[in-house]
Structures are given as C-alpha cells and as structure tokens.
Amino acid sequence: MSHVRDMSLAESGRMKIRWVQDFMPALVAIRARFEREKPFAGKKITISIHMEAKTAFLALCLAAGGAEVHATGCNPLSTQDDVAAGLASMGVETYAMHGVNAAEYRGLLVEALSCCPDLIIDDGGDLLDLLSGDYAHLGKNLLGGAEETTTGIHRLHARARAGVLPFPMMNVNDAKCKHYYDNKYGTGQSVWDAVMHTTNLLVAGKTVVVAGYGYCGRGVAMRAKGMGANVIVTEIDPICALQAAMEGFEVKTVESALAEGNIYVTCTGNCDIITLEHMEKMRDQAIVCNIGHFDNEIQMARLEKSAAVKLNIKPQVDKFTFPDGHSIFILAEGRLVNLGCATGHPSFVMSNSFTNQCLAQMELWEKHLEVGVYRLPKHLDEEVARLHLDNLGVELTHLTPKQAAYIGVPEEGPYKAEHYRY
Questions:
Q1: At 209, which helix (H) or strand (E)?
Q2: Banded pLDDT at 413 (limits 50, 70, 90)
Q3: What does the longest C-alpha to C-alpha distance in the chain come to?
Q4: 98: pLDDT confidence band, cut at 50, 70 and 90?
Q5: Strand stretches in 270-421, DSSP E
Q6: If we measure between CA atoms, which residue out of 130, 147, 52, 152 comes closest to residue 96?
Q7: pLDDT per residue over 394-405, tens digit each?
Q8: Which residues, including other chains, have CB under 8 Å from residue 142's CB and lie 6 or more apart?
Q9: Beta carbons of 165 and 156 less than 8 angstroms apart
Q10: pLDDT averaged over every residue in the chain
Q11: What is the pLDDT of residue 178?
Q12: Which among 64, 54, 56, 53 has a CA at the least distance from the CA of 29?
C-alpha cells in the first residue's frame, strides 16, 4: 500500500505528470511499444529516483509494460508530495514524502523493496546498499538492476572490485544519451534555473567557481559563461583540466579561487570538495551549492557545528555568519540544488535518460546476465537518440551501400555490438 504525505494533492500531481509527457517523445514511443508487447507481465520493478513528474511518467511506462511497479525517491528533499500522491492514484505503489529524516527515508526505501522485486532502477546506490546488507533477503528474486548517476556508478565499481556486487547492474550513466544530454545540458540548465529562481541574483559579471569538469561541470560552466559570468574551474584530472583551459576557462584550486568566487557549484561526486576552512575564507555573501548526488561535497556537518550563526532566509536558503562578520549562503542544505530549489532537468532531456532505463530493464530481463557491471549496448543508445530526432526536425544522413562497404560497416551504421562488460 502506498505511503505518501497527502492523497488530496493527487490531482495536482496528475496534472504535472500529464504536462511532462508531452515533452518526452522517446518515452512516449516506448510506452506505446510496452502497451502492445507487455514485456514485463507478471514482473515486479522497484525504482528509486527523484520523485517528481518525469520519474512518475517513467514508472507509468514500466507499468504499461505489465510490471508491478513500486516507486520511491532517492533524496529526502527532491520528492514532490503532489506528484507522489498523483502517481499513487494512477496505480503505482508509491513510497515517498518530502523532507523526511534519514531513518524515515530509509524506511521508505525498505517499503519499496518489500515486494521482492525482479528488477531495480537505482539512483545513487541506496537500493543496492540495502540489498547488499540487512535487507539482502528482499533481493531473492533479482535478475539485476540499472544505475544512472556518477556517484552510484562509483559505488558499483567499488563493490565489483571488492567482489561483493550481488547481482548484475547496468551502467546507464555512461550511455551517451545519458551523460551527453542529461549530465551536460540537463544539469547546465537546471542548476542555473535553481540558483536564479531561489536567489533572483544576476549571474552576469559574477565569478563562478565550478568544482569538477566532467559532463555535469561542463554544462554548468558553459551556461554560466553564456550568461556573462567569469568562470573558474577546479579539477584533479589533467585531461579534464586541459579541456577546460582550451575552452577558455581559468583552472585553479579551490583555495586559489576563494578571493574571487561569488558562486560555487560542486559537481564531482566526491566528498569534502568545499571544506569548512574554505567557507571561512570566502568572500562576503558568496553562494554555495551542490549538484552532486550526496550532501557531503560541501562539509555541511562541520559547518552546522561551527561557530557560524545560521539563519534561514527562506525555504532552501540558509545564511551562515562567521565570527569575523562575513556571511555565505547555502542552497538546498548542500543537497542537489536543481531538485531542492527547482524542478530538475527539462523533460526532453530526461526522455533520453529514462528511455535508456527502460531499454536497460529489457536487456536485464531478456539476457539473464552474469554478475558484473555492464554498459548499455550502443545500438540501444543510438535508438534512444533516433527516437528524439523527428521532434527536433533532424534529418539523418544514411550510408549508401558503396559508402558502407568503403568503411567496412553495415548500411544501418557501425554500432550494433552487444552489451559489453567492464
């Protein structure tokens, strides 16, 4: 039975879900296919992704394929209570509430797994952690799962290296239609949507410090530059640092940027990127936020226990004033700013990622893979891209038989290989 905050909000949630589906062309196409073929008939799927309208539509698509879907969130601040109620009213067992504490959040995850699913979709690795520990018995029917965040993939590989990965997992995060579009374009737009919506500040003329120049960091830096900001990038990877420099960004350490930064965005998936010592030395009224999955990229626990005086300005905006008189502003409690302070990635972008997820579930169910971490087959990734082209008015060039023979590939293209294992 669903566990949501307030079922009286269901109509508002249903309206949001209906709105986003009009902008998710590939997922609409997949839903139509699922309705015809019912590939998941009699199967149970548990999903743990940010509980908002686009995720709700993913859950409904899987349900259209015949699955019994159990849905929960993957972050206490990203759940939208009306969407959770709306999804529950549309026949999907839903366990999600905004603003729960750590124990309550864990409880909701356990509820979502209590069906003993055949397949899972994870976002950050919390389901995997439970199924690898105290709740391993709830994974007795599992054929595998899919993970779609950089942070979650790090956790997957750590388990695989240690030999404790309990079942096969599909790495959807590294599919091109995920990290090229979701991480770069989705993150780039939604971070600044959140910052500007929450603070109403002008970005132009300010100095933005972007920690990490992976695909998420590239998107954040690109959009900041486009709005007239001076952008400083911090990096540990020499290749990424060189790319940032070649694209016109200053590359420094966080420590070197403290005298200049007005806005800080952490995009690394690692811990302790912005430390208490950094925040103690920042410029007055600096804004600090995070787009990584967990809130430990910014040392929030240390900040909360420090001598800085905390003042809540408005929802998701906290001012911390240090003994020397300077203040900084933390957005979304150091959690995912685009979902804590806004509504996440645009629907069209998530159509790419969630169609990848649907196809990953098909692969897991049909192929019965051995334990390991797998990438989505390239031909499926290409299919996701193709499903979006008509919506954008894109005309794709096709190889002639002569051209295909000349470079030694099939006429339909070179990337038809099966999934491959790390």
A1: strand 207-211
A2: low
A3: 74
A4: very high
A5: 286-290, 309-314, 317-321, 327-331, 373-375, 420-421
A6: 52
A7: 998 889 999 989
A8: 117, 118, 119, 120, 131, 166, 167
A9: yes
A10: 93
A11: 86
A12: 64
Q: Are strands 327-331 and 207-211 parallel, antiparallel or unpaired?
A: unpaired
Based on its alpha-carbon atoms, the radius of gyration of the chain, rounded to whole angstroms, reads 22
In whole angstroms, give the CA distance from residue 40 to residue 361.
Answer: 9
State the pLDDT at residue 421: 40
- In this predicted structure, the answer to whether residue 15 has a pLDDT above a threshold of 60 is yes
What type of residue is 146?
A: A
Which pair of tokens denotes residue 24? Answer: 């998710």
CA distance 289 to 282: 13
- pLDDT (0 to 100) of residue 398: 87
Q: Specify the pLDDT at position 419.
A: 38
122: part of which helix (H) or strand (E)? strand 119-122
Kindly report, residue by residue over 186-203, the tens digit of the pLDDT.
Answer: 999 999 999 999 999 999
**What are the phi and psi torsion angles at 174 (to 5°)?**
-90, 5
CA distances from 399 to 234, 378, 386, 407, 413 (A): 42, 18, 15, 10, 8
User: What is each CA distance from 297 to 2, 143, 156, 273, 359, in whole angstroms?
Assistant: 33, 33, 19, 5, 32
Return the structure tokens found at 150: 């950089």
Give dist(CA 391, CA 413) in Å, integer: 21
Listing DSSP states for 259-274 in one string gives TT-SEEEE-SS-S-SB
pLDDT value of position 418? 45
Which structure tokens are listed for 61?
């698509």
- 3-state secondary structure at position 69: strand
Give the model's confidence band at 148: pLDDT under 50 very low, under 70 low, under 90 confident, else very high. Answer: confident
First and final C-alpha spacing in the chain: 38
The DSSP letter of residue 120 is E
d(CA 376, CA 419) in angstroms, rounded, equals 6
**Cα 222 from Cα 312, distance rounded (Å):** 30
Q: Phi first, then psi: what are they for 379, rounded to 5°? A: -65, -30
H and E: helices and strands count for the chain: 18, 17
| Alpha-carbon gap, residue 236 to 213, rounded angstroms | 9
How far, CA to CA in Å, does 5 sit from each of 10, 100, 108, 252? Answer: 10, 10, 12, 45
